[in-house]
């Protein structure tokens, strides 16, 4: 079946490149993937997948870091103007931009879940001519939004996988669940899909990331050591006054924020493992000659373990509060994202290795890599593992023009073929999955 | 003539209120007063004034703090949609939003200049119901722009004065020059009008501000001690990296900016007089999990004398540069505004006092007040004084709902009648101006 | 009598130079002027003054910023080794180092008080050869203590004045009170003498400072605008831990102190008048590889008025507390010094001017100067003025080698002759004092 | 031979306790271990060791962080007054306080080196009664110096080992080299002994630390992951001025230091391994009312690898320099200590394990521990390993009253018996050392 797969991939590949560039051009950030999700839903349905979408797969109360209603509405309107499918938009309206496509073979076998993410970053993409998307005309046209992490390719991989599996469905067993998640950036979206129950019937789960320091042609079967993380929005409210006429009347929220930022970065390292802190955004003040009465920070803490992340969080909150006392301003702190630390299932690694090694373009396979960041797929891995299933997070290498989250981030698009083949082989060889023989008749037996 | 003036004012007053509220609703910030300036030009022309406008009265190279071409174009377009006069827009296009109206009586006499400013502030106006403009439906509909300093009233005062003087033109001598200046906030616009020569033929010059801590019914004849000031835009350019995966690769522009902000405010006081420093705006970073690669600050220094301001500026630049060294980022500093320290001409005070005392609603007149802020009308006062003329900056009291530059700033609109009468009397009684007898035949004699 | 005075001054002058250099060499800081005070007491007594000293003139509870008992004892012991008078030491023991010498003429007349201060600063004096005291062998031998403000000369002026007045006592009226105050630096000592009642019978009061930016040969009759001030000692107590092994266990008092210092200096200027803040000393941490568990700051606030100083103090306390919250450490704040804002009595200025003009070496007399610093003689001026008396604080010019409080501070010693003559003339011409005719028989009449 | 060893230890143990308490009482910090070193030299010589000491074992140019000549002289004088041996002092004068004792059996065999360190910390020891050394009268009498890390016990262990090995010398082979190192705190001394060649003939090397989180009765055979470290002294020189009178003239070194401290702690974590930064000491300013003209910081960086430490160091220097630019002060940076990252030789672990297990009081032996701090014995391990030898750094557990470097640090003294027995067994069983059979005749064969 590998040969058939290879031919399919070859013939479909140009289409995938076009899709990825289209998603890249119309980059949409977390919870406003209206255009992206509607295209995904339309295609999956067209190809014969059973679709679950919107509130069915996104639990409202578990969403984190959702933009304002006004922004959601404005973005939905923009998406419509940029080609979002009008028949699908109502389903996603209000920021419920998740899609799940299900292929039930009717034959006994496990439920295998694949998850990709769809959101862009809040970055202004470079328009310099040494940046390929700019030179070739698919640079993001949405100001301040850019696929600088590769989720455009992830979405495409999900769609390509859907095509390939549907084309080869006679060779599959059990059920396939393709999960298209919104709002991975800021680790805001996975929890809402997990709490909607999307993962509850999944026996084997695969997700992954392209790039991440691994070059094209290499595949890492399982990532370990994703950092636990908490995302905070901090607002300081002081009192504005005229900086020339009455400086003494002001309560300076900008200085509170600046003090907080400096001191947050000075939280001591933890001897028991990695920790991180970042004040990624600071916005303060309204005018040059006005003592700034308001300030806003986007902060995140991380830790190699949940305990270390908790330590960072406690210290951070202390500092944020102290800075408010200092400048006699009011602080408010909102938790807008969270992810666990979680590891891939060791038992699954040899299986993935054997599939990846079948892919011609793969010249090196590694078992494990230690992840440096956070990823809310960890919620999904954990849920599957908690239910007795196995789950792994792969890294599919691709050579990058500039690092993730850089304004000139760009990928070698051939990674999409490799990823699609690797995932497809995992589905096609379900019979080799650990603890699963072809004779098993139902999910319940695992 | 005072009686005639009083009746005129009574009859026109409702119209003025309407105009002020209209300007308030369509607040336009510095260099983008497209709608405001086009309405001013249209009305002045209609009433019979000779109009100078656009590049004729604004010297391009002397403009400071001009927004980007894109923003200018976008705002011009918006202005058109909000009622800007299409026939006037081309004159102002690109941010040359100054207007001068000239009334030449043909009779011998001095050239008397009056200057008002037209721009709003970059403040989001309060929409709470205890804020009158919100309760009464003329809250600013332009997001992030608000007349929180009273320039809507200033513009209206200029227009009302134009009406009144034209109506009483038979009682005037010499020439009247009504100067409508853009971009006073940030002290960016006056210099460009001065360098275009607008003040060069002015013998007596009056400008002023409403409010400023003086209650309704009081007039201050001359402000002293305006602070010299310099406005700086600072940009830090570092390097973004993933805050979880590769924090060590980042060059943190946000921390440079935060350090700069804190240390700027710590510049020592000067023993020889007042000094000020304000970081009014700080914007840094693009995403929560990205080490911030860019930051932007709006800064201003002030001093009781130009020397003290120079001292503050030198220290500020040193700190801005040191913060860049600290975090290994590149800094750039742009001067976007400047004003002198300048005093009103003492010789003019008794004349102004005698006119102000004729206004029925004025119950107290003070000679001088010490100003706490900066004001670029000082460029105009200075130019007139340098040419041997006399100039004064008045304060026309009005009781405020909240201080200048506050999101709930609001005025007692009756101040407009007082201001118009006071200014009109100064023009109507030109014969009493110091060093000017009715017998003088030409400007040259001053 | 001026001629006699002049001859006296000429003959005594070499002795004064020797005394000043001796005091300079054995510099003693506030509350430990054991050697200095004992020499003063011995000489005054020898010359025939009635002596009040120690607890008689220093109210214990009103002392501020008194060193530890251990330090006091150690310094007293050192003083003994350096020539302090053993018979006087018990009087001053424990830091009651004030002396008052009284000369009662028995003739009707006012009580005239003169006050000088005796303490050195906590500065390590320069031993470079371009510093005269070092080159000439009278550099301070007490480590970390230096007469860098001229109180060695002040003490000498007090003694010289005592000599001269005693020599000319037949020409005096009323009573003379010579007040030798400890601990002026840090404005710690005056209040304790005032509260001991030392000023309660004084009708006319003179104190003053040499130098202060006024060159040799000039005398300023009255200083105005002394800044109100408060002196604070701040201690942060955190928790030490090994910086390599367990950084996360530490509570970093050094970072709390550093944050406090930066933010204290950022307290906004006050629009109503001068304000000051200084963190003069910061000491934190015990070892390089230990997370600092303790920190200590010496802070002072000032204001042109007591209200402005109060504003600075409130903001400072807020910041100090906020920094403690930030780093989860305990703060303690102790007030260790205070002075008022106070002005010289205008009525006294013409009298002082007329005396100063009689001094040959004086070539310029100014009525007033605006002081930039603080001075606790203000407590004494205030008490005398509150009782209906008149008081002034003079500045007797002297050209300085380096500014006050610099490690190379040095004076032109001729200032002592000028000061002594000026003060002596004020006493000798008591009959010319405002509101005081020779006929008055009692203090009560003022 | 174990039995004989055990009896020796039992009989000598009380003496050891006395020595340790004596060293504790007369704590001497790095490079001024005059008393300690002279006692060590005297005893070793008395017992028959060949002594190398002073400049013979300390290379002058490789010493780091040596105190001033004045302090060295003052401390040497104090040591003499506290019982230092006068005949030995000249050898150590000037801070060459290292001693090596050599025992050559004359029999073939390896050269085995043992190293202990002798210096105390700059900590003021607690005198509270719940602190045993205070309650029992051997609290440090040297102000600001305290054995808060256990080097008093280390020195005693070295001496006890010397006694035991000399007593059992007939059962030894090859040569024993006992190395008593000064100035381990601040990692300042080891490099100078290595560069003097002390380690060049050592085939097997053992050093170790007591405590370090390991309880009494446990021995760890080899420490891994000592952090590379660099120690920096930073001085800022600005300009002092009167904080009330002329604040604008000052160049504030305290604010430069505070800014540096805050920003140093904000150096980003490194994704490739542990990093550390500590500003352990900050001292700035001379008086409350003086703008601080000088500041001093003790800083250290660390890294899991030398590259990471280098990264921290480069960033630190950048920040230190930037802070100087900010406040227009001059900075100077001096490297005063350094240590490598280094691991114990794996091949040696089983040998050490087998010896430690013979010690009765040892109930648990672990192979490895990951160290959290730095240690300059790493220079010695590295030199021995570079020469083809084997080296290990042990941890000999002891239960602590308070953590290392705390003012109430105290040990369970029984650890000394365990350490001496373990080390002695390592020497006595030299024949079992890896790659070393009794037949080998010379070092050269290894």
From TrEMBL, chains A, B, C, D:
- Peptidase M20 dimerisation domain location: 233-321
Tell me the InterPro entries matching this sequence: Amidohydrolase, Bact_exopeptidase_dim_dom, Peptidase_M20, Peptidase_M20/M20A_hydrolases, Peptidase_M20_dimer
User: Could you tell me which SUPFAM superfamilies the record lists for this protein?
Assistant: Bacterial exopeptidase dimerisation domain, Zn-dependent exopeptidases
Give a single Pfam family match.
Answer: Peptidase_M20
- What name goes with this protein? Amidohydrolase
């Amino acid at each position: 079946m590998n040969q058939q797969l290879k031919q399919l991939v070859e013939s479909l590949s140009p289409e995938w490149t076009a899709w990825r560039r289209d998603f890249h051009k119309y980059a949409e950030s977390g919870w406003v993937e209206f255009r992206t999700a509607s295209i995904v839903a339309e295609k999956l349905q067209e190809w014969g997948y059973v679709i679950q979408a919107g509130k069915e797969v996104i639990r409202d109360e578990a969403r984190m870091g959702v933009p304002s209603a006004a922004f959601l509405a404005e973005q939905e309107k923009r998406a419509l103007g940029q080609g979002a499918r009008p028949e699908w938009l109502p389903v996603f309206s209000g920021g419920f931009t998740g899609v799940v496509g299900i292929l039930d073979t009717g034959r006994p076998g496990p439920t295998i879940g694949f998850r990709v993410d769809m959101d862009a970053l809040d970055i202004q993409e470079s328009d310099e001519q040494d940046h390929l998307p700019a030179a070739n005309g698919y640079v993001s046209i949405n100001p301040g939004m850019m696929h600088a992490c590769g989720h455009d390719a992830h979405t495409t991989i999900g769609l390509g996988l859907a095509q390939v599996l549907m084309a080869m469905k006679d060779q599959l067993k059990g059920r396939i669940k393709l999960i298209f998640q919104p709002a991975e950036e800021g680790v805001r979206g996975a929890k809402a899909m997990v709490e909607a129950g999307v993962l509850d019937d999944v026996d084997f789960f695969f997700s992954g990331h392209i790039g991440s320091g691994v070059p094209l042609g290499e595949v890492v079967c399982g990532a370990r050591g994703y950092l636990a993380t908490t995302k905070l929005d901090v607002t300081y409210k002081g009192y504005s006054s005229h900086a020339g006429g009455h400086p003494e009347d002001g309560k300076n929220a900008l200085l509170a924020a600046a003090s907080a930022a400096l001191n947050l970065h000075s939280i001591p390292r933890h001897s028991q493992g990695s920790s991180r802190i970042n004040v990624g955004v600071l916005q303060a003040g309204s005018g040059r000659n006005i003592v700034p009465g308001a300030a806003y920070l986007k902060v995140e803490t991380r830790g190699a373990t949940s305990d270390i992340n908790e330590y960072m969080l406690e210290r951070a909150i202390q500092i944020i509060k102290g800075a408010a006392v200092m400048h006699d301003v009011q602080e408010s702190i909102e938790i807008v994202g969270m992810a666990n630390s979680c590891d891939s299932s060791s038992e699954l690694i040899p299986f993935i290795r054997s599939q990846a090694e079948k892919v011609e373009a793969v010249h090196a396979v590694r078992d494990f890599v230690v992840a440096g960041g956070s990823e809310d797929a960890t919620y999904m891995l954990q849920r599957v593992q908690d239910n007795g299933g196995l789950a792994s997070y792969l890294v599919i290498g691709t050579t990058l023009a500039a690092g993730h989250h850089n304004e000139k981030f760009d990928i070698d698009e051939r990674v999409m073929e490799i990823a699609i083949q690797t995932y497809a082989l995992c589905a096609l060889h379900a019979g080799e999955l650990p603890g699963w023989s072809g004779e098993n008749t139902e999910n319940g037996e695992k």
